[in-house]
Design goal:
The chain is an alpha/beta fold. 47% of the residues lie in helices and 18% in strands. The structure holds glyceraldehyde-3-phosphate and zinc ion.
Length: 282
């Protein structure tokens, strides 16, 4: 099926009160494993190309892989830019055929985040591509994005932002962080509820790795419609390689890593309530 947009899959998720997984992909085998899980779970899926892959020069290759996987897929697939760092990078992704782009201006002064996100949205919407924005910089370490602050989003900024910029998804900082949490994640669900009460675009939870299942379910019940997962997926794949390295058989190693990554992805899909009932995109 052709690639679809973030707007379409999140609209369906809003109807079914579920969340769609956004998995970071770094090579050929990880997206293949994610798609195997998505087919089994009948789950729409967001294949995410982030700064790590882009800085490694993989953006165009991975875009071709995602396009081919989507063509063969029976479930909706979104090609998404994660934590876009500039207007120029977004334009490059639009040219490469992405159907969704995130501009992460959360570390910028509010007015500058609004200004650049508006420019990104004008370009993306002109070619039918969805936009994700961010407020309340997510802490932790991801793809060399290092932020040690635990920025809780300011609800007044959310109210202003959504009145000034039209986006299809909004990532908010509620105590979530990239990478593996030191101890139990301290998520501010009251803050998330106050953001949701503003009737914002579908909300996004970054730093999905390591958040306990009950917290994930509670966040979805409040209104989270997209959940990003990178670290747990990468670790599952690498664990699969490590387990099999003694065989000195590269295809056996990749197969084992594929199986571990697919199992993790399917577990997340079930948790995000994407299983069994295919989410029909109108
Ligand atoms: O942007 C990527 C995600 O927020 C991934 O976070 O590595 O903690 O799962 P994670
Ligand atoms: Zn993130």
């Amino acid at each position: 099926m052709p690639l679809t947009t973030l707007k379409d899959v999140l609209a369906a998720a809003s109807q079914t009160r579920t969340a769609i997984p956004g998995f970071n992909i770094d090579n050929l085998e990880i997206p293949e494993a994610v798609m195997a899980a998505a087919e089994r779970s009948k789950s729409p899926v967001i294949l995410t190309i982030g700064q790590g892959a882009i800085n490694a020069g993989q953006m165009l290759y991975l875009a071709d892989v995602v396009r081919r996987l989507a063509d063969q897929s029976s479930v909706p697939v979104v090609m998404h830019l994660d934590h876009g760092v500039s207007y120029e990078q977004v334009i490059q992704c639009l040219r490469a055929g992405f159907t969704s782009v995130m501009f992460d201006g959360s570390h910028l002064p509010f007015e500058e985040n609004v200004k650049i996100t508006r420019e990104v949205a004008a370009a993306a919407h002109a070619v039918g591509v969805s936009v994700e924005a961010e407020l309340g910089a997510i802490g932790g370490v991801e793809d060399n994005l290092i932020r040690d602050n635990r920025n809780l989003v300011d609800v007044r900024e959310v109210e202003r932002f959504i009145s000034e910029v039209e986006v299809e998804a909004l990532a908010v900082g509620i105590g979530n962080a990239h990478g593996i949490y030191k101890g139990l994640p301290q998520l501010d669900f009251d803050l998330l509820q106050r953001c949701q009460d503003l009737n914002p675009p579908p909300l996004v939870l970054h730093g999905g790795s390591g958040i306990p299942d009950d917290m994930i379910r509670r966040a979805i019940r409040i209104g989270i419609r997209k959940i990003n997962v990178a670290t747990e997926l990468r670790n599952a794949f690498m664990h699969g390689l490590e387990e099999a390295v003694g065989k000195r058989d590269i295809y056996y190693m990749y197969r084992n890593a594929f199986d571990q990554a697919a199992a993790l992805a399917e577990k997340k899909m079930r948790l995000f309530q994407c299983v069994d009932e295919p989410v029909h995109i109108a």
